[in-house]
Specification:
2 domains, Alpha/beta knot, alpha/beta, homodimer, seven-stranded parallel sheet, 42% helix, 9 helices, 7 strands
Chain lengths: 252, 252
């Protein structure tokens, strides 16, 4: 999977209280290929052993600790503060995550970019925010703006590393559920299937005298609406053939 | 902030072991305005008191519990399984989250859509996946595909609610042949049809001794791939019932 250049992206956690949240953030970072974790005054020194850090041991081990945000972001060309969605700080431009992500990527081509998360209870202080070039938030329901820290990190990094929805790989309207290699049944295949099905319906008494043409039309349309792949048309044909064989045998 | 119509989206958690993860999922749901939580065989009955459920108490209280996935998704027109990124199941089409999200929105305009998450350790079983129309995954770093459950729910719902609601009535890629007024067959309707078809296949000798489970799985998947409307599901059900009646009569 292609990811943007992410060596120049770091996550900064300021005054995190719960070591499990540090572990959760590290795990999310690992999932999205971002390894540079910086901690400012973590409350609990035992965070490196955080149990929830599945797959994130290396990220946790390499995490660097700072006593001030200023030191933590000293080498960064862009510093983005995250907020819970309230405009608590009017001095900073606030961008939605999806608008911020392309800017992160752009700047990361030039130098280190920091995405800064505040403590679970209080978020980032005004002093912290004064080190940020601007802020971003994750759009949430108005009555539930407060996100879990690990989840906020996960969503942010997902968006930052997100490759746009593809147009070329998108399901074509003509063949929505196709897996690679499958092609849609040809008209001839559909027709063969419709014919077998009609035969089975005839033997079972579904087709009432005088309704043959109407039922034939209905079955033909039905089979086409199913948009079967060639493989599925074969599969259904096999089933109908078997049923047909049994019906014919019994009718003897 | 504008959100798409999300009353028709539900989250289904199958065999979740850790009640904290149920709380975390409920919190993420609250953040993104999605309230319909369904639990299949949660391991720990005390989940409603999960401490991590900040802001998610109502979602947890209203969560419904089911003993099977089939029951949990009986009213759903689209069921999406989530996977850890490995193509463990080649029978289901796999879409990236960002490609899946627009389809979720589109179908949610017509009926209930389920996003299904498996247990922390094992994900969804093959049997679970046989109830899914297709699967989606969150693109992750290749060496760290396993996401925390609550984070996976958060990222998925972020992406699903991220896409602006479309106002046009463009034909759905998922069901090109729908005419206005048709709704897709519910899972329960698909299940009834699969059951009748299986019975007919049994009577006709299609099902060889010892292959019942495999054929059942195959038929269930086949019926879901057809993406029948409710009307067409009725039509096919009627055909199969008639054939069934005939086969039973002949078998005495």
């Amino acid at each position: 999977m292609p990811l943007p250049d992410i060596r120049n992206i770091c996550v900064v956690l300021v005054s995190t209280r719960n070591p499990l949240n540090i572990g959760a953030a590290a795990r999310a970072m690992s999932n999205f290929g971002i390894r540079n974790l910086r901690l400012v005054n973590p409350y609990e020194p035992g965070f490196r052993e955080a149990r929830s850090a599945v797959g994130a041991a290396a990220t946790l081990q390499d995490a660097r600790i700072f006593s001030t945000l200023a030191e933590a972001i000293a080498d960064c060309v862009l510093v983005i503060g995250t907020t819970g969605g309230r405009d608590r700080n009017l001095d900073n431009t606030l961008r939605r995550l999806q608008d911020a992500a392309p800017l992160v990527e752009q700047e990361a081509a030039r130098g280190m970019v920091a995405v800064v998360f505040g403590s679970e209870k209080r978020g980032l202080s005004n002093d912290d925010l004064s080190y940020c070039h601007w802020t971003m938030n994750i759009p949430t329901a108005e009555d539930h703006v407060s996100m879990n820290l690990g989840q906020a990190v996960a969503v942010s990094l997902y968006e930052i590393t997100r490759v746009p929805a593809s147009t070329e790989l998108a399901p074509s309207p003509e063949s929505p559920a196709l897996t690679i290699g499958d092609s849609l049944a040809t008209s001839a295949e559909s027709e063969r299937l419709a014919a077998s099905l009609l035969q089975a319906l005839g033997l079972s008494g579904y087709v009432k005298p005088g309704t043959d043409a109407a039922v034939e039309d209905r079955v033909r349309r039905l089979v086409r609406r199913m948009r079967l792949t060639s493989g599925d048309a074969d599969l259904v044909q096999g089933m109908v053939k078997q049923i047909l064989w049994k019906l014919q045998k019994e009718n003897g």
